[in-house]
Amino acid sequence: MINDLRYAVRGLLKKPLFAVLTVVTLGLGIGANAAIFSVVNGVLLRPLPYPHPDRLMMVWIYNPRQGFDKDVAPYLTFVDWRAQNRSFEHLAAYTGASVSLTGAGDPAQLRGARVTPSLFPAMNVQPALGRWFTEQDATPGHERVVILEHALWERRFGSDRTIVGRTVQLSGRPHEVVGVMPAGFHYPDDATVWLPLAPVGPYKQIMESRGSYWLNVIGRLRAGTTMAAAQADMDTIARRLEQQYPDSNSGQGVRVTSLHDEVVGDVRRALLVLLGAVGCVLLIACVNVANLLLTRATGRQREIAIRAALGAARIRIVRQLLTESFVLSSCGAAAGLLLATWGVAALQQAAPTNIPRLASIAIDVPVLIFTLLTTLATGVVFGVAPAWQSASASQSDALKEGGRSGGEAARGRRIRHGLAVIEVALALVLLVGAGLLARSFAALARTDLGFNPHNVLALSIELPGQKYAEDSKIVQFYQQLSDRLSGLPGVRSVGVGSSVLLGRLPNSSTLSVEGRPVAGDAVNIPVPFDTVTNGYFATLGIPLTRGRLFGPEDGATAPAHVIVNEALVRRFFPTADPIGKRVTFENPQGKNVHWLTIVGVVADTRRGGVDRPVWDELYFPLPQSPDSRLTVLVRTSGDPIAMARAAQEQVWALDPGQPVASVRTLEQLVARMQANRRFTTAMLGAFALVALVLAAVGIYGVIAYSTAQRTQEIGIRVALGAARADVLRIVLTDGLRIGALGTVIGIAAAAGMTRLLSGLLFGVSSHDPVTFVVLPAGLLIVAMLASWIPARRALAVEPITALRGE
Question: Beta partners for 544?
Answer without folding.
Answer: 602
